[in-house]
Specification:
The complex is a heterodimer of chains A (432) and B (164). Chain A is built from 17 helices and nine strands. Chain A is α/β, with parallel strands linked by helices and 432 residues long. Chain B is elongated and about 45 Å long. Classes of the chains: A alpha/beta (432), B alpha+beta (164).
């Protein structure tokens, strides 16, 4: 499929991190255009584009911006969510490491649109290299008058700062991130009030994912109608990055119009690893319920995946072949959520641990069918009743394991097949 | 690195200057805490002693217990000594599907210590880690600040042997 690369057009170009090369590809024209428009017009254009958040929740970006109160004396902030800690997700890293100016342009336009003079790019602590690339790109943007007291000579002030996290998945949650930015433990806040009204340092704040902000310059420059022309329908629009990993021949970040099918994605990355058979795939990061091989023709957009009981999430696609024990895969994800639960809310703190414990019992060969029933009773109580969505996220893989693979697991339990033989990726002889 | 000079609750001037240089970025002093802890931990050989936690607390006018609470929340801050080199092996699903468990096994054999224990010569410690965000180049490990991608057990052993 021939696809115009929009978000990744500079990836692989020499000097792609510099203002010069970015400008050669049309960079910062959108910012100049935005500054000639009224902020409200920029918000309207983004609203009209139907751009939905690329971080996981898929919330309409323009609508989020419109919640920021106008005519307040308080400072306002943009916080760019570069925490990218959802297992399977690595697309934002590509955008930051290869085209940091695109992100900076998105941040400044967002700032202009809502009247914010400061952006904090909250980047996960492990992304040390990407943080250095951003720092350097920001320095260069100041030198070119793109950032600072008068953005492109407009009189509008905007500063961008990189703020490093320190290893906590929950800091990718909007209010956990704000707490962390303020120098606290990253424990999500009670909502409302929402960040648009009371966000960073008690002030109105817009929190947008890296890829979301990278879409913004293109919307401003080429128009909302162009953006809406990409994708299957009016609710799922624009170019989209899909991060593909696991048992495929060429894992990587691939740009497609949103709504490409899973099979097209798979074909695009060279098919299954060693030509093996597909068993299951996760369409949108660790939180997204698993799908089965027979779902392979599904369209990878927000609404289609939601209807199928899963979600697009961060569009991190994890592919598992026929050698994979799905209980073992779900156990790994359950461990992750148990580790990352911040511990504030009992259902999440306790529930994630119980799911891990029961899955471990089954996987290790000490489980019975009663454990599967117990798991099915625990899962509904983990989510929906706590301050943030981590509990809901933790439910996803386990619920889908029971729904999609329950019969198979029961068979295996009755026949005493657990633990299933592990097919090592590396020859164990070579390990010794 | 030589013996850290953090005794008496005072931080070295160079670190204090770096932290002070960030003050204009934030409307509150408390927001300097994560940047400060990164700087101090890096200076202090990769971990945060009780003394360094107290020193950071004093500098930012916070209570030591608050700072300790923040340290304990984040996986990248350590309140106990670590090896001169810190190895984090990504173990989440995408890496697990591509051999992360074998990497960890081979590391355990190579270093002959358990997870999060320091080798007798103080050279290394290793842990399994949650997703490092490099799933397309799985399996992946982070050694100190750097990512090492598309690893094999042999390649990781070689990298570890080269550490000083």
């Amino acid at each position: 499929m021939a696809v115009e690369r929009v978000l990744t057009r500079n990836v692989g170009r020499a000097g792609s991190r510099t203002v010069k090369v970015y400008r050669e590809s049309g960079g910062y024209e959108a910012l100049a255009k935005a500054l000639r428009l009224q902020p409200e017009e920029v918000v309207e254009e983004v609203k009209k584009s139907a751009l939905r958040g690329r971080g996981g929740a898929g919330f309409p970006c323009g609508l989020k911006w419109s919640f920021v109160p106008r005519g307040t004396d308080k400072p306002k902030y943009i916080v760019c969510n570069a925490d990218e800690s959802e297992p399977g997700t690595f697309k934002d890293r590509l955008l930051m490491e290869h085209d940091p100016q695109q992100l900076i342009e998105g941040c400044v336009i967002a700032g202009w649109a809502v009247g914010a003079n400061t952006t904090y790019i909250y980047i996960r602590g492990e992304y040390r290299f990407a943080a250095r690339v951003l720092e350097e790109a920001i320095r260069e943007a100041y030198d070119h008058g793109i950032l600072g007291d008068s953005v492109l000579g407009s009189g509008f002030r905007h500063d961008v700062y990189v703020h490093r996290g320190a290893g906590a998945y929950i800091c990718g949650e909007e209010t956990g991130m704000l707490e962390s930015l303020e120098g606290k433990r990253g424990q999500p806040r009670v909502k409302p009030p929402f960040p648009a009204v009371v966000g960073a340092f008690g002030c109105p704040t817009v929190i947008n994912n890296v890829e979301t902000l990278c879409c913004v310059p293109h919307i401003v420059l080429r128009g909302a109608d162009w953006f809406r022309s990409i994708g299957p329908d009016e609710r799922n629009t624009g170019p989209k990055l899909y991060a593909i990993s696991g048992h495929v021949e060429r894992p990587g970040t691939y740009e497609y119009p949103i709504g490409v099918t899973f099979q097209e994605l798979l074909d695009g990355c060279g098919g299954m690893y060693k030509g093996r058979r597909l068993k299951a795939f996760i369409p949108g990061g660790a939180s997204a319920p698993m799908l089965r091989a027979e779902d392979r023709e599904i369209r990878m957009d927000f609404d289609t995946l939601a209807k199928a009981g899963s979600m697009l999430g961060s569009a991190a696609v994890i592919v598992m072949d026929e050698t994979t024990c799905v209980v073992r895969a779900a156990l790994r994800l359950a461990k992750f959520f148990a580790h990352e639960s911040c511990g504030q809310c009992t259902p999440c703190r306790e529930g994630t641990n119980w799911m891990e414990l029961i899955l471990h019992r089954i996987e290790s060969g000490h489980g019975t069918e009663a454990d599967l029933d117990l798991l099915a009773r625990v899962v509904p109580n983990v989510g929906g009743i706590s301050l943030c969505a981590l509990g809901d996220a933790a439910q996803g893989p386990v619920r889908s394991l029971i729904e999609k693979f329950g019969d198979e697991i029961r068979d295996n339990l009755r026949a005493g097949r657990y633990p299933l033989p592990r097919v090592p990726y590396f020859d164990l002889g070579a390990v010794a | 690195m030589s013996e850290p000079d953090l005794a008496g609750g005072s931080l070295p001037r160079a670190i204090v200057d770096q932290i002070d240089g960030l003050r204009s970025r934030y409307p509150t002093e408390e927001a300097l805490l994560l940047p400060a802890l990164h700087l101090v931990q890096s200076y202090n050989g990769g971990w945060l002693s009780e003394e360094s936690i107290e020193a950071v607390a004093e500098l930012l006018h916070l209570s030591p217990s608050k700072v300790a609470g923040v340290v304990s929340f984040y996986d990248m801050f350590h309140d106990h000594p670590v090896g001169r080199h810190r190895i984090r092996v990504c173990s989440n699903l995408s890496c697990q599907l591509r051999g992360a468990e074998e990497l960890l096994e081979s590391l355990a054999r190579e270093l002959e210590v358990g997870e999060d224990q320091v080798t007798p010569d103080g050279r290394c410690s290793y842990v399994h880690f949650e997703c490092l965000g490099s799933c397309d180049t799985a399996p992946v490990a982070m050694i100190d600040d750097d990512y090492h991608e598309n690893l094999t057990p042999a390649r990781l052993r070689q990298l570890v042997r080269e550490l000083e």
